[in-house]
Amino acid sequence: MKKIYRDLFKVVLPVSFQYLMMSLVSASDAFMLGFLDQDSLSSVSLATQVAFVYSLFFGAFIYGLSVMAAQYWGKGDKATVKEVLAVTMRYTLIVGLIFTLATAFTPGLIMRIFTDDPVLIEGGVKYLKMVSLSYVIGGFAQVYFGILKICDRAGLSSLIGSISVVLNILLNACLIFGLWKFPKMGIEGAALATVLARIFETVFVIILILMKKCISLDIGKTIFPSRCDKTLHRDYWKYTIPLLLNQLGWGGGVTMYSVIMGRLGSNAVAANSIASIVRSMVASFCWGVASGVSIILGQMLGRNELEDSKKAGGSFVRFSILIGAISGGILLLITPILLNLVTLEGEALYFLKIMMIMQAYYIIGGSLNSTIIGGIFPAGGDTKFGMWCDIITLWCVVVPLGMIGAFVLKLPVLVVAFILTLDEFVKIPAVYKHYMKYKWVRNITRE
Question: Are 417 and 402 in contact, with CB atoms under 8 Å apart?
Fold first, then answer.
């Protein structure tokens, strides 16, 4: 078991650091735009939901990549891993192009989904037009980061991503406020900084591909589906479609949280934005654990180490609860510091204080569920249960209750916010019951 945890932490530490650095970009956007005015903070917070929705698509594609590539890598079949990479890259680029075109040409229509406030719509439109190119090029880099983690190059992925984040934060400061000889661009400066950081990542990924640091990208199979093995292609979609529906169902529900909060006023949006960003930063290690668990268990299952995988899974479940509890404690400890640093005042500041307490217990359930649903189940190709679990929990329970509370019963903002934190705990009994059936303990590779 010690060796398994050594292997796990080789993945978890760099991946967690990368997640943390990515969260710092959102934090820097919120912190810097908060110095301009609260409306700038709120409008960009809503506009970045588009990037979140896009991440659901490429996240599902990369999940599918991880499900299959980890087992084939554990088996030693690198040729199949290369083909899975080509399939994943193809669909990520197609969806990225759609998001780029939509945000470039219909940003106003997109912003009206999230808010009816004309001031917030205007700010969001400026951001989306400028940031539009980042979607298609960002997806390209993220897919290759995913394959680097599979082929034991997680540290390299983390290094490039972290340098990109530092660059993004520095450019944020320069372009938002007009430091040195840079123009003062405000909201559009934050968007341009994101685009430039994504270009940086893409250039380095191309260099890595040319240097053959990991699995190389087969351009022909990426562009022409007919060149790919049809059975492998079917297998990819067999495991990826449930993951995609899961991502969209879960992500759509979370986006509905923003839609609900976006109609409760700028104070609610600003407080919820900051609380969510801080939770994301602290939860970076939880997400890193889930990602690492999926890869390590996948490789073990690909080698037919079924009984050892079952024992490791139980250990990982207990570990995720511990990590969640520690993360919740950290959120409570940093809350007083956060309240003294932010520029919010009055009602918005009070909302933030209570929302941070809510995030502290929410993260415990999130850690457990992300490890089991996002790590253990997909490692063995068990991708359908998570889809139904998340969709039913969010769309049949939490979102309807949140909308009724906000728009029918006109409940206070914090009561609505509490309702929207119930999803992780509602599904725990069903998740654990399914885990104990051990349907995920299987080798899904083909000869």
Answer: no
| One-letter identity of residue 407 | F
How many other C-beta atoms lie within 10 A of the C-beta of residue 116?
10
Quote the CA–CA distance of 187 and 327 in Å, as a whole number: 32
Asked whether the CA dihedral 38, 40, 41, 45 is positive or negative, the reply is positive
Do 215 and 147 touch, CB atoms closer than 8 A?
yes
- Nearest-angstrom CA–CA distance, 391 and 80: 32
Query: What's the pLDDT at 317?
Result: 95
Is the whole model's pTM more than 0.90, yes or no?
A: no
Closest by alpha carbon to 108, among 96, 95, 121?
A: 121
Q: What is the pLDDT of residue 30?
A: 67
Asked if residue 297 lies in contact with residue 309, where contact means CB atoms within 8 angstroms, the answer is yes
Q: Is the pLDDT of residue 38 over 80?
A: no
Q: How crowded is residue 340: how many other Cβ atoms within 10 Å of its Cβ?
A: 6
Dmax (CA) of the chain: 64
Give the residue-averaged pLDDT of 21-46: 75
Calpha distance 316→298 (Å, rounded): 14
* Single-letter residue type at 244: L
Least confidently predicted of 85-94, 106-115, 209-218: 209-218
Reported confidence tier of residue 252, pLDDT bands at 50, 70, 90: confident
CA within 13 Å, CB half, 430: 14
CB-based contact 25:162 (threshold 8 Å): no
List Cα–Cα distances, 288 to 10, 285, 316, 354, in angstroms.
Answer: 11, 5, 12, 27
Question: pLDDT digit string (tens) for 276-318?
Answer: 888 988 998 998 999 899 999 999 999 999 999 999 999 999 9
Is the confidence at residue 184, as pLDDT, over 80?
yes
Residue 387: alpha-carbon gap to chain centroid: 16
Q: Where are the alpha helices (DSSP H) in 37-77?
A: 38-47, 49-75
Residues 6+ apart with CB under 8 A from 219: none
Residues 202 and 197: their CA atoms lie apart, in Å, by: 9
Which of 255, 249, 290, 242 lies closest to 61 in space, CA to CA? 242
Instruction: Look at residues 31, 28, 62 and name the one whose alpha carbon lies nearest to residue 194.
Output: 28
Q: What pLDDT does 246 receive?
A: 85
